[in-house]
Amino acid sequence: MLAALGLVGLASSSAAQSPPVPGLYGEWLEAKNREEDAEPREFTLINYFFTRASMTNQVGDPAGLRGVALGPIGSPVGSAVSIEPGRSAYFVEQRWIPVIEYSPFFVDGLASFRAQFEVDFLWGRSANTIGQNEGGGFNADQVNIQTKNINVALYPTRSPSKLALLIGTQPVYDSPYDPTRTPLSDLVRTGYKLAFLGSDATGLSIFSGYKGNARLTLTPLGSAQADRATRNDPRLKYIWLAMADYVYPVRPNTNVGVSLWYLNDDTKGDAYAFEGLVKSGPSSSGLPGFTGTARFDINRPTGSVFWAGAHFNHNIDFRMGRLGASGFVMYNGGKYESDDPDNSVLDELSISGVSANLEVMYQWGRGPGDVLTVEGMFSSGDSNPGDDKYTGAFTLNQYGLPGAVWFNHKMLILFPFTSTVNNYTGAVTDISNQGYGLRAGIATAAWDIVPNTLNLKVGAGLANAGAEPARWDPTVRRGRFIGAELNAELRYHIRYLMTVGLHGGYLFRGSFYDGAPTVKSDPWAAFTTFTWYAF
Amino acid sequence: MSSSRAFTALLVAAGLSSAGCVRSYASESALSFKDLDYSTEGTKQPWPVHRVALPDVSARYGLGTALHVSYVDLPAASPEAKTVVFVHGLGSYLKFWRAQLDVFHAQGYRVIAVDLPGYGKSDKPATFPYTMEAMADVVHELTRVLGVEKPVLMGHSMGGQTSLSYAIRYPESLGALVLVSPAGFEKFTWKEKAWFARVMSADFIKYAPEANIWGSVRQANFMHWRPELEWLIEERVRLSKTPEFDAYAYANVRTVRGLAHNDFVRDNLGHVTVPTLIVYGTDDRLIPNPFLHGGETRDIMEFGASNIPSASLAPMKGCGHTVQLDCPAAFNEVALAFVKDPASARPFVEKAREDKTPKPGEPAPVPGAPGTQPSPMPQQQDAPAPSDGPRP
């Protein structure tokens, strides 16, 4: 109702007149005539277009992934982002993601079809490609158009907010809300902030909004013929993830949620995580370098992991006042056993870790951008990720590239930045912090210099490892302090959902990098962004 | 304090500080529009609610049956007293003047508050045009039927634009104007208007969840929320369950179309001849439109004030869009002073014009001579700034 007040300010004059209608028909017409109501659309196209021009002293361009930089700063394997003192790179990246939705009128609200693609450019070369898909500057032929999602949503009650069945390749977040009908900004704040799961997968999800919000999801994350060579067994073994989430609104704009997820992996480490580039699971030797997870020395593992968590959010859109908060607690446990114990360092691997987050926000001014935030993130650490007991956070980055990027943190270098095309780099790219655990604190202050138009934000954050990390250099003691970041962002909203930004961050590296062969200077980055959601 | 205790304390503080123990009305019974509680805030003394048919408007706009509107009429203390007619905004009803009706009545004025067609207890015909001109015609006919010759019109938001349309077309039937966070000053392109029409639907209004209603009522309209305002939420949530809400939702859709119809008011501000006071909250979150334009409310209101001859401007520091409920004491003080003596209001003068001060050697203007500024309203100078008050 009063949301329509946002539309005030329009002028008018006398209306078009209709002839008087005598009798009952006039009365009926006055009650039922709805010809000016906005009509639903059969076809919807939403375009996400993003451009980023960067200047940075970080080096990130692995041999396998052209134009893509993934992974924690200093990682000796995988994407291996190193810091080159006295030198800086500059480049321009672009991304276009069209989302097509088709809901034919003749199905009368029973179903919708969706397709989502992704095209990435890096000016002068291709981007987000593997292998030999080099090229894309001169001639500009892009061969790396990706299919992100193809799915069908069924609405048995013809009310998408009440019941929806999503079948096919779909976004899978750690939020309980239907990702096809929920803004991304809500998805990353009302669950576990993408700290555990935020990617795409094929499967089935059911979303219900009858009493609170509930979700059931079953997705096979990968498969392999694990025993084809050794036992002449043609059967596919699967990695599958089942998720149950429920959120209850205890008060308007105050929600409490619980989750129970279960992952089962029978692939013995033979399934691939990213287009055949690296294998997935706890035995993967390539994935941890890209995603910043712990590396485990277990051959041909089979096993399962479960997550049990709770989260809350209160007034995060400031509808009830000036103070908002959100947070979560998550426990992950499980066990893997080696199918090849004779050749495996670890016969089995037990998992038990906990993570927690709390963010408090205060809207000090009139505008939506006049906000102060304080946030803390904790994950338990493991001082010896090489033994058979892992006591850190276990995220879906163990199975994806990336599978979980906590990007709602307002940092630029300490953690991966949200507005990115091909770079998910940061000092900590997974909340497990390579198994060593994380204690992070972040504070930001933002000001709508011109309300709803020009916004300035400054931020500071620091992070510590929870456990003593393995030394880079045996002769140099390595500390827990990862670093402290200072950053600033200036954003100008050109039009609704069209924004340009100027961003800069500097990380004062800590003792975590003492002795590191690839981090010999403080990382910094400055970049511009242009974002447009066109629909 | 241990870390676990600090964590618990933070959670409790977050839960209690800003929203307090707000309750949900989603499971409450349906509330019919006719059962809306129109009464004095403290004593719950019911206001006299009347209904009247408007045959001229019905005929002019070709309605199949006679349009009936509801209104509250509080008699004046004396026959000579002025009449103040209160006109509500989009998505609201006459109760949005709850902090004004008794106050103005206590000052001796005759007080009339109208539910516009589609809103409150008035009829909600789908075929009514819902343009601001048609709305103004309703107000005009109502005042004529009630025997009011030169009312002071007080219009909020859409009611402000309605009042402006009235003032431009019926100047002889008007005493003065009080525009409260008025619509009609902001410029929208035809493409922006077309977008409004495309996205505005009855379903969007009908199926808004309670959490969003808090956003559209409290967040969008208020900077100084108080628990005693929670009726705004309760009534909106419960009204959505009544079968009549369907017609109301569609009336909103058509009203937005009506608002978007053309720029008649904006293009004819110069034809407003009566003394006009423009009151607005400096922290208005709805004007200018936050999605399309952004910027400062002050710029929009100064445009209006600079185009209406002899208009005066009264910014309410730190107040939101529904300034009459957000900062009622300060608003009433300013509005009462103006209604009492509209001629004493200090006209708004643009900075560019202000800079044209007499150069040395030129004769100084004579106080009180035509073209000079009257003395400022004393009550404006002494009024407490609402921003000094407690914030939610």
Q: What's the number of helices of chain B?
A: 16
Helix content of chain A: under 10%
Secondary structure tally, helices of chain A: 4
Low-confidence stretches of chain B: 14-18, 352-392
Sequence of secondary-structure elements of chain A: HEEEEEEEEEEEHEEHEEHEEEEEEEEEEE
Strand order of the largest sheet of chain B: 1-2-4-3-5-6-7-8
Q: Which word captures the global form of chain B? A: globular
Helix content percent band of chain B: 25-40%
Question: CA-to-CA gap between the ends of chain A?
Answer: 23 Å
Most extensive chain interface and residues per partner: A-B, 67 and 108 residues
* Largest β sheet strand count, sense and barrel closure of chain A: 18 strands, antiparallel, barrel
H/E element sequence of chain B: HEHEEHEHEHEHHHHHHEHEHHHH
Strand percentage of chain A lies at over 45%
> How much beta of chain B, percentage-wise?
5-15%
Multimerization status: heterodimer
Measured on Cα atoms, how large is the radius of gyration of chain B? 22 Å
Q: How confident is the prediction overall: mean pLDDT of chain B?
A: 85
Shape of chain A: globular
Summarize model confidence as the mean pLDDT of chain A: 89
